[in-house]
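Page 37, continued from 36.
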């Protein structure tokens, strides 16, 4: 360590991974306003934040496969916190998001505003559920859409208002991965609807598979919106690759 430098704390690393999960891969640099904001919050330089984000990128299997490398002296704590975060996504994301709200002297609700009114005076399990619902509508959407560069991963539509952060595993199926970006695809509303109902799926090798129910249709709009994509590769995510185990479960719901 250079003179005057201080070791990163686990709390700071949690906040850095929180930021890593939300911003586009090409924006993880010192001039990014979100990087600068986090630097001010935790008392680090924007350059040090950007370097730490680069270290996390070197742990990400998707980016590691593309040859992304971090600093040669990555700390054991970096690896430990990354592994803990990835293996216990929802709990640690909620923890880091709550911590971020505290650092900003605000509330989780103000940090993640939604239009849907919430019940008042909720406690215990129901209160936690409301937190997850809120983060699903705000933070999960941001993580998934940024992962696919705000583009529908089937059609290439890049109008954010038309895009949905679609869960691969249904919300009720896995309480520990509701906020995990590896459980999400950026889809336009039409293809989100078809994906949810099993008319399309994505294979483990990230190929699009369209149900024969649609493939056998003579309707031109179905041919234009579905048939042409059958067998094509998904537009590749920038960081978090869809979890193969989640895709296998969705494949089982596919309507061949």
């Amino acid at each position: 360590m250079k003179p005057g430098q201080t070791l990163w704390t686990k709390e700071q690393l949690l906040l850095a991974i929180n930021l890593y999960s939300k911003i586009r891969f090409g924006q993880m640099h010192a001039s990014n306003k979100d990087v600068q904001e986090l630097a001010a919050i935790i008392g680090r330089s924007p350059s040090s934040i950007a370097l730490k984000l680069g270290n996390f990128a070197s742990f990400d299997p998707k980016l590691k496969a593309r040859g992304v490398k971090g600093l040669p002296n990555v700390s054991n704590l970096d690896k430990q916190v990354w592994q803990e975060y990835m293996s216990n996504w929802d709990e640690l994301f909620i923890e880091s998001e709550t911590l971020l709200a505290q650092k900003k002297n605000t509330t989780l609700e103000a940090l993640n505003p939604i239009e849907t009114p919430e019940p008042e005076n909720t406690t215990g399990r129901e209160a936690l559920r409301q937190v997850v619902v809120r983060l699903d509508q705000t933070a999960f959407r941001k993580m998934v859409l940024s992962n696919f560069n705000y583009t529908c991963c089937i059609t290439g539509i890049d109008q954010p208002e038309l895009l949905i952060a679609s869960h691969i595993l249904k919300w009720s199926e896995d309480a520990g991965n509701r906020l995990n970006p590896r459980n999400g695809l950026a889809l336009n509303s039409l293809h989100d609807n078809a994906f949810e109902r099993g008319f399309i799926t994505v294979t483990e090798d990230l190929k699009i598979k369209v149900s024969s129910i649609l493939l056998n249709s003579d309707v031109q709009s179905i041919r234009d919106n579905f048939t042409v994509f059958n067998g094509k590769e998904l537009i590749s995510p920038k960081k978090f690759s869809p979890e193969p185990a989640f895709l296998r479960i969705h494949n089982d719901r596919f309507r061949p």
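The chain has twelve helices and four strands. Flag for discussion at group meeting. The beta strands are 163-167, 184-188, 200-202, 208-210.
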